[in-house]
């Protein structure tokens, strides 16, 4: 220390910088030894003290080494490493660098050193054996994969580096002493390892660990990509998926490798078995901690760095295949993504990130002391003193209190994420499912739990358990089902919206439909709250049970109640869906599946809010309609980008919504009544937009693995099914003015622009206003409307002694015809009637304008319409028809028929 102070005095180092170097030397014996041994580096250190070394800066340091002889090369790369280490120690310990800079510089150092070693030895081996080539003569390169923190560009300052060596194709070198590519790259790999790992008088560069390669230490040092693929397809284990999350080619061509490994790491389906796998891995680590007495290890011990990494990576393993944003490497970036996606709460994650950075900085300080790879808190007073000086703590107890606060926070977060629900209190439920209870005892227990059909349920459980489908399940799925069924029996018994019997049977049907996918069973077993919600939803609606059975990937949506019960935000939905489509650009099949999943997920959210909250029907319809609009808008953009025949960046094309979409009254099973318009002067526009409209319609109606997007009905276009699929704005206006039937003008009262070019949308609204506002002879209009309604009744005869809410006398269609008549008859005098504000609002306006003589009657009809819609809505949820006995809804039907008679001057 005195010698260093003397050197700094001789060099006339300013007091601030002098203090920085002396502080670093007082804290780090490694730094003190390095700068006193290599005093010539002190000037360089001072010149660059306020410089942040970027990747390109680090690369530049190694350029001078490539043309040296081997001994000089090996010495030079070691000195570069120690020079950068010294630079980071001074900057970090004096508050000039943050955590991000340290790990970025260290990662850049490792990558540059690896590349320098490969580039140094490859041409020298090629001089002897020739260049490695594949069967077609293409040159081959060594691919070096950085695993762990190197792959994530978050490498520790004195860490080892986990590497895997690969090359693309088999073959041989092209020299006179030809050897196989396997032999060539094995020799090269050994040279690279020695160059980095060997300890010489000048130290080492990085300790190299190759044990993560296929078959570990027993496996070949280098693999071609075919061999890698075969290994991970046939032998890859769960912990290797975890390891490969951060795997990244740090040297050589990595595109083919990345494409090969992505499906191994990120499954197409939601993989909730990852929870159990990661929990098992953590248990193994904890056992190792105990056996090796590593309780003071801040990486592997309680509340340590590894637990934070596990939290981030379990979400990546589960959802990475579905959410490409999660296919990233750095831990902090993953946590940010989880917050942005609403998968984890922001306040808790921000606190977790603070603790993670604290632990990583502490880890670096432990390594700074003696340039050793250690995460153990020191036992010796000397090393403790070094650490306390770095941290600015007066004593060990205060430091430990601070550390334990961070470890406690991490452990709580980890335990909440990986909590394992115990089933020791489910002995009776387990015995019932396993069939180990006597019949009488089983039925008695079921009755005690509130089940009313005890005998039937016991038989159903027995038949399910012994069914061929269950007996042939893979072992993992069968284990998960055995874990889940007792939980289901307990949860169903607690239902109050329907009988426990109904709740159990409906949920059991759902489980049978998804039981071959262990991951879905794992989700429900790992998250009892999600199971409870599934049971409640199934109990409330058989339609939802069927919907989730058809789309089991939706189970994931039930995990986050914060987003599940949040009303839809159309702007946010559109941004999210647009981003997702852009991520999948070029893969039409993936885009179609993703959009269907997006629709199904949001329909489930709306249904959950419908059944679990007091959200009014109008809000449900508004949300379903807004969802359809978003999907239409993004579909127009996406399909246009995918077609090869487009002639402009954006189409001059619009989608007009009619019927329930136009009136914002969509239900869960509604199809979309739409027409297509365009306004483009290009010569080939008619052909282009006709083909585009057909593609767009196919986009909606195609049944993919993810199901159907929407059924569309295009019959309301000019000339119906015999007309062109898409019309110009001018042709549409002429048709509506000259050829359209009255029923088509009735339909346009509920139409509106929903997607595409806004200028065309404005033009449509102008046409609509003109058509609705044109004067009409009242007698003719009445005759046409009543004749159309009579034709509909003739085509749809009611069943005896029943009232069909939609088609029946005094039903919902009669209300719609009443409103449409009032609008078409009086909009010429009252412009406010042209607004598409819905039937209830229009009835109220007509009463205010005196077009309905009795405001009381208008309110009664509006209430009847609302009651009818509610009944139809609930019938859909229960999977039944909206039909009631003829003696029900008498007051509502009477109000509607009275208004009909008052307007049309004849009984209906």
UniProtKB/TrEMBL annotation:
Alphabetized, the UniProt keywords read: ATP-binding, Ligase, Magnesium, Multifunctional enzyme, Nucleotide-binding, Nucleotidyltransferase, Transferase
Q: Which residues form the PII-uridylyltransferase/Glutamine-synthetase adenylyltransferase domain?
A: 293-417, 788-878
What GO cellular-component annotations does this UniProt entry give?
A: cytosol
- Domain Glutamate-ammonia ligase adenylyltransferase repeated, by residue range, is 21-252, 534-766
Q: What is its EC number?
A: 2.7.7.89, 2.7.7.42
In residue numbers, the region (Adenylyl removase) covers 1-422
Q: Does the keyword Zinc apply?
A: no
Q: Name one GO biological process term.
A: regulation of glutamine family amino acid metabolic process
* Reported cofactor(s): Mg(2+)
- Residues of the region (Adenylyl transferase) are 431-908
What this protein catalyses is: [glutamine synthetase]-O(4)-(5'-adenylyl)-L-tyrosine + phosphate = [glutamine synthetase]-L-tyrosine + ADP; [glutamine synthetase]-L-tyrosine + ATP = [glutamine synthetase]-O(4)-(5'-adenylyl)-L-tyrosine + diphosphate
Q: What top-level branch of life does the organism fall under?
A: Bacteria
| CDD domains from the UniProt entry | NT_GlnE_GlnD_like
Q: What GO MF annotations does this protein's record show?
A: [glutamate-ammonia-ligase] adenylyltransferase activity; [glutamine synthetase]-adenylyl-L-tyrosine phosphorylase activity; ATP binding; ligase activity; magnesium ion binding
Matching entries from HAMAP family are given as: GlnE (MF_00802)
Q: What does this protein do?
A: Involved in the regulation of glutamine synthetase GlnA, a key enzyme in the process to assimilate ammonia. When cellular nitrogen levels are high, the C-terminal adenylyl transferase (AT) inactivates GlnA by covalent transfer of an adenylyl group from ATP to specific tyrosine residue of GlnA, thus reducing its activity. Conversely, when nitrogen levels are low, the N-terminal adenylyl removase (AR) activates GlnA by removing the adenylyl group by phosphorolysis, increasing its activity.
Which NCBIfam families does this entry report, sorted A to Z? PRK11072.1
Instruction: Please state which protein family the record places this protein in.
Output: Belongs to the GlnE family.
Q: What is this protein called?
A: Bifunctional glutamine synthetase adenylyltransferase/adenylyl-removing enzyme
* Source organism: Methylophilus medardicus
